[in-house]
Design goal:
- It is a single chain.
- This protein is about 45% helix and about 25% strand.
- With about 200 residues, the protein is of the alpha+beta class.
- The chain has two domains: about 70 residues, no CATH class; about 130 residues, Band 7 domain (Tetrahydropterin Synthase, Chain A, 2-Layer Sandwich).
- A hairpin with a 4-residue loop joins strand 2 and strand 3.
- The longest helix has 30 residues.
- The chain is rod-shaped and about 100 Å long.
């Protein structure tokens, strides 16, 4: 009888441990969320806001809300050509192609700023990012180009880029400007430009 009781106790312990392992596995599968590379997870709701980049968190329905933010680099290319070209200080017009690389800063303050000002969905979508930042970058390019004569601008691309970056500033809704590149620049031939306009009226 005593041997039977010991066997029963052992089976109860084994059954209890098995149930606990199954329950833990089930909870992990249902509620444990881990970011993939280039993502940040933001958990709000019960408790403090939790932001993770390289580890997982538990998200309980009705108690927490989960936002997924894409933190990879976004590329914005601006083509200022023909009617949208730049006017220099000396009155000369130039065609230019500029590329901007930006991403969300991987800090709690920056991510919270992005969530409150833009939202995780828009900040993760390249079309929305282009719609938000293209006007800012365009304004800076036009304003800085007016400070340079064409010859000076052509010979001082680095200075031109630095002034554009300074004009854009740091308040980019939690994003940081990683790089500004000038991929193409050419002075407009006024004769050809007049011919284009003449052809457009014919």
């Amino acid at each position: 009888m005593e041997q039977i009781n010991i066997i029963n106790i052992v089976w109860l312990i084994v059954g209890g441990l098995t149930s606990m392992i199954f329950l833990f596995t089930l909870i992990t599968v249902l509620f444990y969320k881990k970011p993939t590379q280039g993502q940040a997870l933001i958990r709000t709701g019960l408790g403090n806001t939790v932001i993770v980049f390289d580890k997982g968190i538990y998200v309980i329905p009705f108690l927490h809300k989960l936002d997924v933010l894409d933190t990879t680099i976004k590329r914005i290319e601006l083509k200022l050509i023909d009617k949208s070209n730049l006017l220099c200080k000396d009155g000369k017009r130039i065609d230019i192609v500029a590329t901007f690389l930006l991403k969300v800063n991987c800090s709690k303050e920056s991510i919270e700023h992005t969530l409150h000002s833009i939202g995780s969905e828009k900040a993760s979508n390249i079309e929305n990012v282009q719609e938000i930042f293209s006007p800012i970058f365009l304004e800076s390019i036009h304003n800085i180009a007016k400070k340079f004569n064409f010859e000076t601008l052509r010979d001082s691309i680095s200075e031109f880029k630095n002034e554009i970056v300074q004009h854009i500033g740091r308040d980019l809704y939690g994003f940081s400007l990683e790089q500004c590149s000038i991929n193409y620049m050419e002075k407009i031939n006024l004769t050809q430009e007049m011919q284009k306009h003449t052809q457009s009226y014919n």
